[in-house]
Design a protein that fits this description.
Length: 200
């Protein structure tokens, strides 16, 4: 999917050398991009993602019996995304970055979290490390939030996000206890070649 071209190319992807590329990208990668967009609208603490479906319904109502462009879709999605928990946490004003990365460009990143656990001042623990983003040129400075799931003693679980930015971004997460297990995007919300976790 990556070598053929970006989603924005549409039918222009179909040539004698790339037979079936349009269908593969539009219906396979396209659906995965929408899944990532759904994640951006989801409250990772509760799993509530109704805001995504509300935005989709609004877009359909606005353009019913008419035409609509990809740019119009992302303009509305960007406006609504500002009000989501992730939009407020990371302060993005629109989704131009997401559109550029996943629709206009065709890179296929891998994500790797390397971490260790330290005692936190005042009790608890601190997850300290870095998240690496491979497969994207350093000049692009791709940004992408990823789900983080922390398994704690006693069957407890904590959910949140960390953000990849560029080739390497620092990570520091305060925890109530030392974790038994740390998972990065276990539900495969974010499209990647590989996603892994390594405890140092």
């Amino acid at each position: 999917m990556v070598d053929v071209g970006p989603l924005i190319m549409g039918h222009r992807l179909s040539t004698r050398e790339t037979f079936g590329a349009y269908t593969a990208l539009t219906y396979e990668k396209g659906s995965l991009v929408l899944r990532m967009l759904h994640f951006l609208f989801t409250d990772t603490q509760t799993g509530e993602g109704q805001a995504f479906f509300d935005m989709m319904s609004e877009f359909v109502r606005e353009h019913k019996n008419g035409t609509a462009s990809t740019e119009q879709f992302f303009a509305l999605a960007g406006e609504r995304a500002q009000k989501t928990p992730l939009g407020q946490k990371y302060g993005y004003k629109n989704l131009d970055w997401f559109f550029r990365q996943w629709v206009v460009q065709s890179y296929f990143p891998s994500y790797r979290l390397e971490y260790h656990i330290e005692d936190a001042p005042g009790g608890g623990a601190m997850l300290v490390g870095a998240i690496f983003q491979d497969g994207v040129p350093d000049s692009e400075q791709w940004f992408m939030p990823l789900p983080l799931v922390i398994h704690l003693p006693g069957g407890k679980m904590a959910r949140g996000t960390i953000a990849a930015y560029g080739a390497k971004a620092p990570v520091k997460v305060k925890l109530p206890q030392k974790p038994e297990k740390v998972e990065l995007d276990p539900d495969l919300w974010v499209l990647s070649d590989k996603t892994s976790v390594s405890k140092q």
